[in-house]
Amino acid sequence: MRYVTPNAILWGGGGLLLLAAVTWLFDVVPFPGTRFPAWVIPLALGLILSALGAYLRFNEIKAAFGHRSARYWFNSVVMVGLALGIVVLVSVLGIRHTYRWDLTENRRNSLSSQTIKVLQSLTTDVTATGFYRTDQPGKRLAEDLFRQYESYSGGKFKGKTVDPDREPGLARRYGVETYGTIVLETKTKSEKVLDAEEEKLTNGLVKVTRAGKRVVYAVKGHGEHEITNTDRPGLSEAKAAMERANYEVKDLLLARAAKMPDDASLVLVPGPKNDLFPQELEALDKYLARGGKVLFMVDPFQAEGMKKYLAKYGVTLGDDLVVEVNPLGRLFGIGPEVPVVSQYDPHPITKELGGQMTLFPLTRSVTPAKTPPKGVTLQSLARTSDQSWGETDRAALQRGEAKPDPQDKKGPLPVAVVATIDATAPPEGKKDAKARVVVVGTSSLATNQFVNAAGNRDFFLNAVSWLAEEEDLIAIRPRDPRQAPIILTATQGQVVFWLPVVVLPGAVMLCGIAAVIRRRKSG
Q: What is the pLDDT of residues 235-244, one digit of tens each?
């Protein structure tokens, strides 16, 4: 009868320990019917067998460690084992607990706060399927973006990529005809997104998880900026931004309609040059009485009838043009008639704008009344710097000779105000309905010329989202993924060349020469 030798027991124990390490490293599925991981059993058996083998060969092991060479060998094995253990531990921690550290300018490789809000508020499961060739460069970008979305969704978002050449049936089922298409799908809706860009993916996510579209009506007929105009004074860029955020934008000739459409989520009054007719103002009053939402953008020295209309809601439009002598404006290549706003009052519209600058070109001051009318709550949103003033001398403005006079209001000056108004004729079942109004002293902020400058787009869309009662969409939108090149001066370029190429290698060489000379002298 043959017996199991101590060596066999030691080898068996080592094999079981190796098996436990492999199952732990690759996260093997637990054994059926057990509550502990798969690596627990081989680990326990490996430790038992190793201890038993060591006990059976205790005298031999003790004698072997009496030799100096054995002790050196054992120390070497322990050091190598510790080094390998540290490497394996760090690798496993890196695999199981990923952490991203974005060192790029403005953190443009990290998800925006808006995207994170949308992901954390998901109430239904969403599946994203990206159709990419195996060798397509954008495939890795899409997979990385999916992983980021999954990490914030609480398990509600799942993303994967497939090769349409290998699975043509799936591509045909979704109607995918181009590489790089991403299909977002819930149980009831689906949406196609072209290219793996955060803004497109987040907007698509909003579309498949929201019921229907909210309608924005833009009043026209009084010289307002047109939402279909693609020139610099047009609002086509603002319209496109709202549509990407799942809003439907329509024109409204209020003089003909004489009332607000029933499906209006909010109404935009984008810089009328002439006064609105009395019946139009009456239609706005009835709309606000029902709890309507309106964004007024009123330019200086135009449509002066709006001043009297908004005064009854506690909003005072200044008879001025805000001028600011601020060196920050030179960074944007703009003059003193375009104040750079970086001071915001606490409000859902502005709470995510900290550290962002917003341009308010050709703006008037907009001030909340010290004593608001009954049922009206007022608050300023944005203020200019203390280097600004409200210029009231139109002749001096035309001559380009504006300067602060004693009668001019000194900065900081409010240029945007928000009002919450108790609805006096709320719809049935909404007794506590409240109207919402945002008044901005300029309409140029949202024009094609300025809407994408600094934080203008975020300010405008945040105001739209708050008015539409979609506070979860109020945030900083996804950043521009374009790379910003580093432009060095001639002096900086020479420093970048000489320091790593000449100075540091030369210093290392001199240290080496000095060490050799010193060693020869001492020898």
A: 999 999 888 8
pTM comes to 0.64
Give the DSSP letter of residue 197.
-
Q: 31-46 burial by CB neighbour count: b if 16+ within 10 A, else e?
A: eeeeeebbbbbbbebb
**Contact at 8 Å (CB) between 216 and 266?**
yes
Instruction: Tell which residue, 111, 103, 462, has the closest CA to residue 295.
Output: 462
Reported residue count of the chain is 523
CB 289 within 8 A of CB 376: no
Q: Is 235 exposed, middle or buried (0-12, 13-18, 19+ CB in 10 A)?
A: buried
Q: What angle do CA 342, 345, 346 make, to 5 degrees?
A: 125
Look-up of token digits 């060969």: 57
- What's the pLDDT tens digit per position in 292-329? 999 999 999 988 889 999 999 999 999 888 988 765 55
Neighbouring C-beta atoms of residue 200, cutoff 10 Å: 15
Judged by average pLDDT, the poorest of 36-40, 105-109, 123-127 is: 105-109
- Using CA atoms, how far apart are residues 26 and 14, in angstroms rounded to an integer? 19
CA–CA distance, 318 with 161 (Å, rounded to integer): 56
Q: What angle do CA 327, 332, 336 make, to 5 degrees?
A: 50
